[in-house]
Amino acid sequence: MPLLFTEDLIASMRQRFSALPEPLRPSIWHHAVHPLHADMRAWLEGHLASLDDNVRDQFLSRLRSEQLYTQALAEIATAHVVTQPGYAVEYGPEIDGLTPDLRVTDPCGRPLLVEVWRRGVPQASTRRNNGWAQLARAVQRIPVPLAIAVDLSDRPSAQPQAVIDPPDDAARRTLVAVLRDWLTSRTDSDSGMLVVDHLRFRVVGTTTSGRTELLPVTDGVSARREDVVHAIEAKVKKYRRIAERYDLPLLIVLSADDGTALNVRQVEDILAGQNSITMTIPQWGLGVIDSGPIKMRQSDAPPKFNAALSGIGWLDIRDGVHAQIEMIWQNPAAARPVEPLP
């Protein structure tokens, strides 16, 4: 009997997210519903079944949340990678009031603390994506079988370089009413374009649903050197005291959700000292990408981390069964160098 991907959860995923364009559906929807992820489902269910009841319940609580799902999944995948014959893995061990993600003990009895950081889509981008998705849902209620796209007619004069936010609740209701009037009254000889404030809507095709469909609008996302370095430094700051007190090597494992612009090659460049930034540019995004200020560095010196940090790894979850920590970069200043993982 499934522990996570139950009939109730799958039905909930279909009800909540199936009406959204595929790029806006969360990872848990894809893993729960899509036929291509059957191996992922089987692997995750099997891993959960092998856990102690308390640990399993804690993971199930997080895995059922679309916001927490991929972080919990990354922790499980990391444990899967390091659980080799003779290795013991403890989830969330309590050490002096702190609970690092994993404590791994090798066959010789040598312990290792492992912290997992999963880069997700920034909250501001998620908020904007959800706002555009709400507009798409509202537009879908218009009983005219046309596909429409939205872009900018003019950049708002008060904020020429601003990221474009979707309309709020009140503006969305007004906008949908205007779109409804336009689409239900237009004829073949009419212009296929409508400008409302700074948004321009264009008819780009027909639909088979009998309803109006808005082409998906998603935010562009950037990943900068600061994102990675700050995440590592925050983990080290939190756990260096127990690493030092109990003479424990500390490994931080990084990974990233799809659409976050972060990948293993960028991490490698960042750790080599490059002022690296990568971006995802969606086909139907509006306005500039919210990359934030970029501080130019005066040298190509690699970042320096506290000696409590032993190393940094990169996790590729794949289908779970074939998850792999692809790279481990040693911290040159490490007081306790990390042993290569099996």
Distance N to C terminus:
32 Å
Mean pLDDT, all residues: 90
Give the overall shape: elongated
Main beta sheet = 6 strands, mixed
Helix/strand structural class = alpha/beta
Provide the gyration radius in Å: 24 Å
Query: In percent terms, what proportion of residues is strand?
Result: 15-25%
Strand order of the largest sheet: 1-2-3-9-11-12
Domain module count: 3
Short structural description:
By secondary structure, the protein is α/β, with parallel strands linked by helices.
What's the layout of helices and strands?
Elements: H1 7-17, H2 27-33, H3 38-49, H4 53-63, H5 69-82, E1 88-91, E2 102-105, E3 111-119, H6 123-139, E4 146-152, H7 169-185, E5 193-196, E6 199-206, E7 213-214, E8 221-224, H8 225-245, E9 250-256, H9 264-271, E10 277-280, E11 311-316, E12 324-330
Parallel strand pairs: 3-9, 4-7, 9-11
Antiparallel strand pairs: 1-2, 2-3, 4-6, 5-6, 8-10, 11-12
Helix pairs in contact: 1-2
Please, could you describe this protein's structure?
The chain has 342 residues and is of the alpha/beta class. It folds into three domains: 1-67, no CATH class; 70-121 and 220-342; 123-214, no CATH class. Helix content is 35%, strand content 19%. It has helices spanning 7-17, 27-33, 38-49, 53-63, 69-82, 123-139, 169-185, 225-245, 264-271; strands at residues 88-91, 102-105, 111-119, 146-152, 193-196, 199-206, 213-214, 221-224, 250-256, 277-280, 311-316, 324-330. The strands form three sheets. Strands 1-2-3-9-11-12 form a six-stranded mixed β-sheet, sandwiched between helices. It has a four-stranded mixed β-sheet with strand order 5-6-4-7. The protein has a two-stranded antiparallel ribbon with strand order 8-10. A hairpin with a 2-residue loop joins strand 5 and strand 6 (199-206). It starts with 6 loop residues before the first helix and ends in a 12-residue tail after the last strand.
